[in-house]
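Support case: user asked for a sample of complex input and structure output to validate their parser. Sending the pair below.
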Amino acid sequence: MTPDRPGLPTPRLIALDWGTTSLRSWLLGDDGRILDTRRPAGGLLDLAEGIDAADPAARARAYEAAYLRVCGEWLRDHPGIPALACGMVGSAQGWYEAGYLTVPARLEQTARELTPIRLDEGTVHLVPGLRIPSEPRHDLPGDVLRGEETQVIGVLELMERRDAAHTLVLPGTHTKWVRVEDGKVASFTTAMTGELYGLVTRYGLLSHTATTARRDDTAFARGLTAGFSSRDQGLGTALFGARALVLDELLAPAAVADYLSGVVIADEVRHVLPRYPAADPIVLCGAADLCRRYAIALARCGARAEIVREDAAATGLWSIAVAAGLVAPERHRR
Amino acid sequence: MTPDRPGLPTPRLIALDWGTTSLRSWLLGDDGRILDTRRPAGGLLDLAEGIDAADPAARARAYEAAYLRVCGEWLRDHPGIPALACGMVGSAQGWYEAGYLTVPARLEQTARELTPIRLDEGTVHLVPGLRIPSEPRHDLPGDVLRGEETQVIGVLELMERRDAAHTLVLPGTHTKWVRVEDGKVASFTTAMTGELYGLVTRYGLLSHTATTARRDDTAFARGLTAGFSSRDQGLGTALFGARALVLDELLAPAAVADYLSGVVIADEVRHVLPRYPAADPIVLCGAADLCRRYAIALARCGARAEIVREDAAATGLWSIAVAAGLVAPERHRR
């Protein structure tokens, strides 16, 4: 164990973004500076394999073991360090159900609704998700997110424009569009775009048409065109277009994946973009290549996009930890 | 071997509908009467497993072996009996590439463009598919079908209204909408609806939300409503609605599959139906439960549907065999 010494970075917080398919953990120092990172393979799904869904105690043990596997060294070296986790780890299928705030929700509220899990090695706090309740009277489904609330907090922190109104798009397996007004999440929308793309290219019949993908921006642009024009044909028809183009030797099998990526992203953007105010630039936060794709798709619709770096979750977790009093906001002075 | 005797049914044709995921074969007698049926598990995909896609000879051997496994007894008992096969068995990934007729195409043309495969046990003839060529100038994808041309021929035969204009819907993994006018296929549209449903419910994240399905027509109807209203949200968002409804305890996990079935079918119907003339009843041909679902979806749009029995392919194959001179149209007289 390294004692805290002036001049050397002092670890203050273990921060985790623990989702369905991935886990990222950071050791954060003063002001939320990233001191160390662990990104083990796999997320909740891998962990849940082989565990009886009806046995929460067995599941909790599996999560605890996984947590100690990833962060044990940090916990040993810095006893008493607080830990904060966001993402599906706080869902009913996760470590422990951390609840939801109902939208419209003030983002500061998040820090007041943490769920603690007490371990011998210290407490892990879980961040609540956000929900839009379903409307039973009109049978209108609501929506949920978990993890993205923390990314949003991080993005606003990074942009230093907390109080303005923003439309954020967080692309991924389930892309989230989030509208923030005056520090409140006013509404949001989920689109399973990344998941549909993954299913079709990995398990679908088109996976037999596609050969190993090489990045092909022209194919992506052509897919966008097809997806934007799918107003009169639908996603299930637009996707199949790739097969006809390959048979007619107008699309290389290696370009099928990028073509399909264009189709699904365009189909999402043309449906969801009109539901959000048009004026301000859209803020994109996520994997660099995905953000680039969304920026191109948005530009086709005349919408300007601004890309914020991917690890906004670490910033968001620090910000929540400060607001919750888990860590001191200022550099610890001696 | 049973010699042909008056009074006993005489086998005239081995007919196969050999698709990507299933194989159905019939032994047909005079007038195309079904004398015997074989429906082994699996289709092209199972057969292709473990075979190098770049080795057509190995693939051909595998198809021949599969064919003899299924139909060998019929071939032994009725030497010299002709065989006719439709479906993906005639695709580039199948036994032998049987080509396509370009739409608009006269259905009679099909019988003049058979591709023979000569075996020691007799010749197997393959039915050509149909294609709409892509338009390279506007980068508009065309479309293809294979197997459904034979179902269409069978449906028209069964309906005894060959020359009228019809809109046919053949629901399945890839649902096909086919417009027939004066014995010609004027146009058609593919929607990967069944495939998307299968991917999402089998491999998708919602498969963790769904428990074993029990048929739930109310959930299907609610999914239809969501899918028809998805004009302003898109398929990727409408599908995710099931997750929110389950979390809000407004949808039982066992009803998720039927809800999603409603969402995808509605999304297809609302996109594709407007592309076809409104007046006449839509003719549905396929698995009984799927046809029932499409009929309900079509009724929501004010479109009347007529369901034709599933084994139209056998009728179509007989009809093509007669037109091609492989069998005599009339009962063999002695």
